[in-house]
Amino acid sequence: MRIVIAEDDPLLREGLALLLRAEGLDVVATAGTADGILDAIDEHEPDVAILDVRMPPTHTDEGIVAAVEARRRRPGLAVLVLSAYVEQSFATDLLTGGVTGVGYLLKERVGRVEEFLDALHRVADGGTAIDPDVVAQLFTRSRDDTRLERLSPRERDVLALMAEGLGNSAIAERLVVTDGAVHKHIRSIFAKLDLSPTDRTDRRVAAVLRYLEDVRRRG
Q: Is the entire prediction scored with pTM above 0.70?
């Protein structure tokens, strides 16, 4: 796995590189600016880009803008975005721009090495990895959406774990239920959110994006 890292804090940038190299991963380039990481992506053609949300010069959304541009230039690129805070609009900007091989984690998650590496590998394999704290806040802001109100508390739990990128078996393990029970809950979620089996979109992804889009509309 070839990785590039964009982080303006040199200590965190080098710390991430050391951590990943210690795990046998190939960090091919690091940069402290969004422009620098885009140049590195063009040059090295990595498999995964890890980007900070806030980078010079304005320290606002340079990382998200770079992530979207990087995926435009290199459609198969997996992107894992790191943020110091839950920034909901940035999460929806990234996720609605492409929902395979993307992740959004709080920086504090990096200190939980196993969780961070699991998220990285999940994103590299084409899945999603959304920080549980981001999911929780999105659900809190979306609770008055009428479609989401149709869900039972257990179905909300299942959808929240789907949003984190967990598969059925991992959800079953987390909730201490059977795989069959999870499958049943997911079928019910699809029905209550009006997601038809004939839809051409991935219903699992669409279910997660329903409430993300609602958050975007409500600002």
A: no
